[in-house]
Amino acid sequence: MNDHRPVLIVGATSAIARATAAELAHRGHALFLTARDTDELERIASDLRLRYEVPIESAAFDLTDTDTHETLLQQAESGLGALHGVVLASGNLGDAALTREDETETARLLHINFTAPALLLNRIARALESRGAGFIVGIGSVAGDRGRQSNYVYGSAKGGLALYLQGLRNRLHASGVQVMTVKPGFVDTAMTYGLPGLFLVASPQHVGSDIVTALDKGRDTLYTPWFWRWIMLIIRSIPERFFKRLSL
Asked: N or C: more exposed end of the chain, with fewer CB within 10 A?
């Protein structure tokens, strides 16, 4: 497959985004990579250029600075042409214990995991809708499927993002734009390193391959690895009168 249609990757230094970028570059897509860590960003861009020989550009970008969203899109399309897709992989687990005491931390997590992504995707959706083609991939989390005391602020933001993407999918379907919600389970990344209670941990490469394969198949929602769909079905089915007594 030789497909140079440009894809924007937001949060490109995350392990999942890096693996997804490699899969897309392997298929021939030109990529515009963004993240805050410019040194790591350029290392990733250089590696992808060398391995896949496709157009790769990069730029420093802080998703939470919503005043820069329009400038980013203009920069990406100026460098590579009209965007065909976006993979939004930015997120932050934060400090769940701190959110109980500090509203500033709560506001920060809600903004970086929900508000800022939704505002950026609003802009991208308008562009793709006007062209009648393309895709949006939003990487959420299984944590958004049910509120648990251990991470309910992060989970509520990811749950809000999933609902936003569901509505966007409904809106954009008639225009031929695919919107896919990705819900990874535990993945071996810097964000999860050292966390207690992890099990069935997947590699970023496995998740990246799952994402692009599901995108090719036109999937709406992807649990990855696959068994998380059934794990979360069981968790969602527990009656609230019992669930609220659990320490999760």
From this structure: N
Supply the range of the domain harboring residue 234: 7-243
State how far the Cα of 31 lies from the Cα of 84, in Å rounded to an integer. 10
Closest residue by Cα to residue 10 from 89, 76, 110, 120: 89
Domain assignment present for residue 1? The answer is: no
Q: How many domains does the chain have?
A: 1
- Say which residues have a Cβ less than 8 Å from residue 224's Cβ, sequence separation at least 6: 182, 183, 184, 185, 202, 206, 207, 210, 211, 214
Report residues of the chain scoring pLDDT below 50: 1, 192-195
DSSP state of 2: -
221 in a structural domain = yes
Q: Torsions phi, psi of 86, nearest 5?
A: -140, 140
Helix axes 152-172, 103-110, angle to 10 degrees: 30
Q: What is the DSSP letter of 114?
A: I
Q: Are strands 221-224 and 178-184 parallel, antiparallel or unpaired?
A: parallel
How many CA atoms are closer than 13 Å to the CA of 131, on its beta-carbon side? 15
The enclosing domain of 60 has a CATH number of 3.40.50.720
pTM of the model: 0.92
Whether 107 maps to a domain, the answer reads: yes
pLDDT tens-digit map of 141-166: 999 999 999 999 999 999 999 999 99
User: Which of 124, 103, 116 is closest to 161 using CA atoms?
Assistant: 116
3-state secondary structure 34-47: EECCHHHHHHHHHH
